[in-house]
Amino acid sequence: MKTIAIVNGPNLHRLGQREPGVYGDGSLADLEATLQAEAEQLGVALRFFQSNHEGALVEHLWELADAGVTGVIFNPAAYTHTSVALRDAIKGAGLKVIEVHISNVHTREAFRHHSYISPVAAGVICGLGLKGYSLALHALAGQ
Ligand code: CA2
Questions:
Q1: Are 80 and 101 spatial neighbours (Cβ–Cβ below 8 Å)?
Q2: CATH no. for residue 32?
């Protein structure tokens, strides 16, 4: 069975608790439950991870590669715009990553327009709310 990982970066553990106009009102637990139900329909296994720490995310990406996951749905949150370390981990580990952002980063502040992750991602989804994770899951499950 394929295994797909869902990895979320800093502050996303508080999803649904602040800024609902930007990020919606669903919690991270709600999102994970929705994706789990979809994965069962698709016949794939999921692994979930969230961290507020860049190094923990780097280490987790390497663990996912060592475990042979099929793909990673990754919302690096603010580290999208700052982290060479996460980019190097994805490239170095040879992971197939779909970068997901809940908001449309291109309609927001200029500092959100650049992603260190996109050049090493297989695909990028942004601005579709939590639905973006489901779309990425279907894409990876279908490959
Ligand atoms: O739109 C996205 O998914 C982002 O990755 C979210 C990041 C932001 O830095 C990126 O530019 C775009 C921020 C996540 C903050 O999450 C919160 C959760 C609850 C309350 C407030 C923020």
A1: yes
A2: 3.40.50.9100
